[in-house]
Amino acid sequence: PLALGLYTVNAVYGDTITMPCRLEVPDGLMFGKWKYEMPNGSPVFIAFRSSTKKNVQYDDVPDYKDRLSLSENYTLSIKNARISDQKRFVCMLVTEDDVSEEPTIVKVFKQPSQPEILHQADFLETEKLQMLGECVARESYPEGNVTWYKNGKVLQPVKEVVVINLQKIVDKSTGLFTMTSSLQYMPTKEDANAKFSCIVTYYGPSGQKTIQSEPVVFDVHYPTEKVTIQVVSQSSTIKEGDNITLKCSGNGNPPPQEFLFYIPGETEGIRSSDTYVMTDVRRNATGEYKCSLTDKSMMDSTTITVHYLDLQLTPSGEVTKQIGEALPVSCTISSSRNATVFWIKDNTRMQTSPSFSSLQYQDAGNYICETTLQEVEGLKKRKTLKLIVEGKPQIKMTKKTNTNKMSKTIVCHVEGFPKPAVQWTVTGSGSIINKAKETKYVNGKFSSKIVIAPEENVTLTCIAENQLERTVTSLNVSAISIPEYDEPEDRNDDNSEKVNDQAKLIVGIVVGLLLAALVAGVVYWLYVKKSKTASKHVDKDLGNIEENKKLEENNHKSET
């Protein structure tokens, strides 16, 4: 490279400077020498080499002691380049007739250290010009320049907002420069989390280069401009018995540490930290809640609804009633929202609400009125009614001859609650019959039956007794030789009502047919009355004869 038309060697601080002698070696060369020029132009010789004796001599120059080396081709090397080596050096070749000279300019460069931001502010305050920090880059040659950046963009000086001051100090012993750039800055709220950095621009052997500092983020303080209140809850809805945590926050930095909380029913604010806790809240906690800064300058509000659910069952608990009585039942709901109500009887959900105008045994059981608020998790209420339907024992007895004609089945149909105890006796002897079989006791009904084969007419007595009453009913039963058929035995209690309905229908039909037959019979009887008179007397005599025979047979049996 050429500088002002002269050959220039660019060297790095601390490295070796190599300067070739750019002259052609002439014939008759006696020796070669190197010198440098002082600022005032006077020469200082530093190295000598003879072409004939091949010896090298170095002049006693303190700055270059033990640093010089002159090769056979008269190339001069200087170790450990310094800033003071930046001079004009001259190579001289001498013959008997002439002296040739060729100058070389030496330039030395030193890369600065990575810049650092020192004396950083602990925090920045908005609307206040303050020292942000100092960017320091050390040991540079030549001196460099410092530029400040925010979020990767150059910070240009702005009066009373961005103030930059650059200082360059040279070390007299080394000639190296230290650049210090201070930045005064007035931040805004938007500067929170902004990255500040600085870059030093310097020149090296190959041209202009830059080095960047590590970015720094400053804590920017700014006042609160808005207050916010919120309800901290694990559920989206609040019900009676829950805990409520109110949290108040301000958008300033640092955030406010104390607030005033305004609770429904309280005229004065309650001073607290940023949280206020209410435990086991009731429905009267529903209302508008507010919080503000302690100076009451800013305020925010929110509305809280405490959901509740009340259930009143009338009657409830254990209730005992008599069969046939009426029992009004009501399940009244009071809630903060529309509630869903349903009834359960003996673990089975009912389709309609219970209503008892005339209690029956099948109405007895465990009733549950249950209600829920579907939108409110965990809000459920239930109350129970244990209904007991009592009744005195009622008895109905039936008899029939079995198909084998060898026995008769006598059934005692019993109703009542508590379940009656049943005993059988035979009138006359009064003995208790223990071989009775009972059906399952369902809805206050069951049957007790015995199978007998009487050789003569007997009277059976069925006794049913519970805590309310003792009921006795008797039934005459003919000897086994005389077939008897009474009402059919109930198949089971579940379909007894259906059987009764069918029986009533059949009886109605039979009665209608009998009435029709009776009318027809009367008409016919009037028609044939006269013509049948003689025949009627004959039949009567025959009947008397048969009756006498039967009486004689019975007397004979009795004697036997």
TrEMBL record:
GO terms for biological process: adaptive immune response; cell adhesion. CDD domains: Ig, IgC1. One of its GO terms (cellular component) is dendrite. Keywords: Adaptive immunity, Cell adhesion, Cell membrane, Cell projection, Disulfide bond, Glycoprotein, Immunity, Immunoglobulin domain, Membrane, Repeat, Transmembrane, Transmembrane helix. It is found in: Cell membrane; Cell projection, Axon; Cell projection, Dendrite. SUPFAM superfamilies: Immunoglobulin (SSF48726). The keyword Cell cycle does not apply. PROSITE patterns: IG_LIKE (PS50835). The chain crosses the membrane at residues 505-527. It is a single-pass type I membrane protein. It comes from the Eukaryota. InterPro entries: CD80_C2-set (IPR013162), Ig-like_dom (IPR007110), Ig-like_dom_sf (IPR036179), Ig-like_fold (IPR013783), Ig_sub (IPR003599), Ig_V-set (IPR013106), Surface_Rcpt/Adhesion_Mol (IPR051116). Gene3D superfamilies: Immunoglobulins. Residues 103-212, 223-305, 324-386, 393-473 form the Ig-like domain. PANTHER family: CD166 ANTIGEN, CELL SURFACE GLYCOPROTEIN MUC18-RELATED. This is CD166 antigen. It comes from Circaetus pectoralis (black-chested snake-eagle).
